[in-house]
Specification:
The protein has 25 helices and 23 strands. By secondary structure, the protein is α/β, with parallel strands linked by helices. The strands form seven sheets. Strands 5-8-9-10-11-16-15 form a seven-stranded mixed β-sheet. A four-stranded mixed β-sheet has the order 4-12-13-14. Helix 10 packs antiparallel against helix 11 and helix 13 runs parallel beside helix 14. The model has no long low-confidence stretch (mean pLDDT 88). One of its GO terms (molecular function) is ribonucleoside-triphosphate reductase (thioredoxin) activity. Keywords: ATP-binding, Nucleotide-binding, Organic radical, Oxidoreductase.
Length: 729
């Protein structure tokens, strides 16, 4: 039987961390070594307890100061040999050597390059919007492999080791800390289009028409995307572009007055010409964004927020954004992957039938039923959750409300995020073995590592100079024109920028402590909310200590939900309802395997974003809605005063061979047409929501766990669109 010894000696880990001695970890390590040799008998179990007690007693007797982890491992090996467990000792020693090798390999450039050359799927399929077949992407992946190895050596040792172990995840290691790049941002398009900017050797004059303004936008997007590693967003796009369309309008008024003195004809002529200019410009934006390639070897991750404008020009811009998306790309009318469209719902503007822009809401609903986008923002809830209204940076990262202390004005455009570190919550829960006190102890240890990593992210990003990314720092994308001698930190400090603490797997944590159906247990729900609240409390304390805004971020990572689960399958084995699924649940989302209506899902998830205001989104899964748009409107209206950000997942796949439209079937070869079996990406259009963005998994394969999740999402819908539309609430 395992005895409980009081050991006050602290353990010094390889990365320098000092932690409390925990005999159960020794017991677990010996047990795994024994199990690798053969099935355990009752006598073996007793032997494991005896050896653990022996090791604990020796540590207590020998050490009064901090003891190195390697010394403890030596004691374990000697105790195994003394007890005659030679095969256990060999297995234990071999495991130690393998772990040491893994740690060294992750920091070895040659090893990382070999993984790439051997087309390791976890490397080449890490991002489903990167086509690893093309040269530019291959070059970026090669550079990323080198940057990962160097980056691990640059990180604080505790952070690097925690990342390698899978306790946490340092996002975008292929870019940072090797380079002092920023993550995602809200580009200050209004400033740049109005004041001009420079790219390369070209000084670009302010735009004087909507066509030129849109072309300049795409130039800015391409350059910004190549100067950072995250998504970029255009906020209030209809309002930003309207003044440039007004220039077109004034020009056409002048032309018309030269032809006629009739005011009505002048007005009609000018508006017709301006409407065509607006449509042509926005169609150019759609095509240019989808044909751009950044230096990362991918289409820039672009989000376009719109929906608050009220003038006739702003209304026209909103409608044309939606009409062009509905129309589709090319002769086959494929669904555009980018830009991501985010439409704003607001009471008194477009929410109800008597609101002036209600007709545009109807067009947005039609667009979502046919092309999945736009996602929608609830104006009032975004203000409540984040402190001010703005579109997300990239797919789901939100800035908090911020007032410039120099001017007293609220500022959103031109601000940015400095990066994300995500904590593996399911691992903490499984390591605690259902003991909540133990959970919080491990949780605090991981929070300390995350803090160390996030502070380093800030410090490293501050090492950039304005010349490092002129489009960001010198020409206005970040809202200011810094001189070469200025510090970029002036745009980060005083909470102007955000740096984010991410999390994955609240569902799996609840399952460890309360079973797989804990969603309806008030105690379990309160416990899960308390975890996110604790992260928010830590972030507030760190902000007070350092002067930068630390935010809690519901991680969307397409590959990380697979990676963490894969790591934990190796560590804990196949655990029912946790690792057996082959994926972890994104952030605070409801288990995708459960049969619930959109209303039930939203009611469950609405309690988390108040503590996860640095990054959040909700999705609902629907059957084909094209013939019943009122069903989708029912959910949008229900969600308005409950959540801030809602995405639509509905089948919009197309087969150009047989004409089928709907949900393609997932197979080992990819997604195939259920009518004719076609899975050729050249003759079919498969669109799935892979994380915060859409993607085509037949063109660019996704990680396996993510595909499993999508299958479950569709398979477990338990409602029809008529049931949604007829819901009463």
């Amino acid at each position: 039987m395992l005895e409980v010894h009081t050991v006050t000696t602290k353990i010094k880990k390889r990365d320098g961390r000092i932690v409390n001695f925990d005999a159960s970890k020794i017991q677990t390590a010996i047990t795994k070594a024994a199990q690798s040799v053969g099935k355990l008998s009752p006598a073996d179990t007793n032997a494991i307890d005896d050896i653990t007690n022996d090791v604990t007693a020796k540590i207590q007797d020998r050490y009064t100061a901090d003891v190195e982890i390697s010394e403890i491992q030596n004691i374990v090996e000697q105790s195994l040999i003394n007890d005659g467990k030679y095969d256990w000792a060999e297995s234990y020693t071999q495991y130690r050597l393998q772990q040491d090798l893994k740690r060294k390999q992750r920091r070895d450039v040659n090893f990382q390059i070999d993984r790439l050359l051997s087309k390791d799927k976890t490397v080449v399929n890490e991002n489903a919007n990167k086509d690893s077949r093309v040269f530019s992407t291959q070059r970026d992946l090669t550079a990323g492999a080198v940057a990962k190895a160097i980056g691990l050596k640059m990180l604080p040792k505790a952070v690097a080791n925690a990342h390698v172990r899978g306790d946490i995840h340092w996002h975008d290691l292929d870019y940072t800390p090797y380079m002092a790049e920023t993550n995602c941002c809200l580009i200050d398009f209004k400033y740049m289009l109005t004041h001009g900017f420079a790219i390369g050797n070209a000084e670009v004059e302010p735009a004087h028409s909507i066509g030129v303004a849109v072309t300049q936008m795409t130039q800015i997007i391409a350059n910004v995307a190549s100067s950072q590693y995250g998504g970029c967003s255009s906020d209030r796009t209809d309002e930003v572009l309207a003044p440039f369309a007004e220039k077109n309008y004034q020009k056409h008024l002048k032309e018309a007055r030269e032809l006629t003195d009739d005011p009505a004809k002048v007005e009609t002529f000018a508006k017709e010409r301006t409407r065509k200019d607006i449509y042509d410009a926005l169609q150019t934006l759609e095509y240019q964004v989808n044909t751009l390639y950044s230096t990362q070897g991918q289409t820039p991750f672009v989000t376009v927020g719109f929906g608050l404008g009220t003038s006739w020009i702003e209304r026209e811009i909103q409608k044309d954004i939606l009409k062009i998306r509905i129309l589709g790309l090319g002769k086959e009318k494929r669904t555009a992957i980018f830009p991501k469209l985010v439409f704003t719902l607001k009471k008194g503007l477009n929410l109800h039938p008597d609101d002036p822009n209600y007709d545009i809401k109807q067009l947005a609903i039609e667009c979502a039923t046919k092309r999945m986008y736009p996602d929608v923002l609830s104006y009032d809830m975004i203000k409540k959750l984040t402190g001010s209204f703005k579109a997300p940076m990239g797919c789901r990262s939100f800035l908090q409300g911020w007032t410039d202390p120099k001017t007293g004005e609220e500022v959103n455009a031109g601000r940015m995020n400095l990066g994300v570190i995500t904590v593996n919550l399911p691992r903490i829960a499984m390591e605690s073995k259902g003991n909540q006190k133990k959970f919080w102890e491990i949780f605090e240890e991981r929070m300390n590592i995350c803090k160390q990593g996030l502070v380093y992210k800030v410090q490293r990003t501050k090492e950039a100079t304005p010349e490092s990314a002129p489009i960001l720092y010198k020409y206005g994308a970040f809202g200011h024109r810094l001189a070469s001698t200025d510090t970029v930190d002036s745009l980060f400090r005083n909470s102007r920028a955000t740096v984010s603490l991410g999390y994955i797997g609240l569902y799996e944590v609840g399952t460890v402590f309360y079973g797989p159906n804990w969603e309806h247990d008030p105690e379990a729900k309160a416990f899960s909310v308390s975890i996110v609240k604790s992260m928010a409390d830590h972030c507030k304390a760190w902000e007070k200590e350092y002067g930068y805004h630390f935010s809690v971020y519901g991680t969307p990572s397409e590959s990380l939900t697979d990676t963490f689960c894969r790591d934990d399958r190796k560590k804990f084995g196949i655990v029912k309802d946790i690792t057996d699924k082959k994926y972890y649940t994104n952030s605070f989302h409801y288990d995708v395997r459960k049969k619930v209506t959109p209303f039930e899902k939203l009611d469950f998830e609405k309690d988390y974003p108040q503590y996860s205001a640095g990054g959040f989104i909700h999705y609902c899964e629907y059957p084909n809605l094209k013939q019943n748009p009122k069903a989708l409107e029912a959910v949008w209206d229900y969600a308005y005063d409950k959540i801030g950000y809602l995405g639509t997942n509905t089948p919009i796949d197309q087969c150009f061979k047989c004409g089928f439209k709907g949900e393609f079937k997932a197979t080992a070869k990819g997604y195939e047409c259920p009518e004719c079996g076609n899975h050729d990406p050249e003759t079919c259009d498969v669109v799935k929501r892979l994380c915060g963005y859409l993607g085509n998994p037949n063109k660019r394969p996704m990680v396996h766990g993510r595909q499993e999740e999508i299958i479950h999402r569709v398979k477990h819908m338990s409602f029809s669109n008529d049931q949604i539309a007829n819901a009463r609430y």
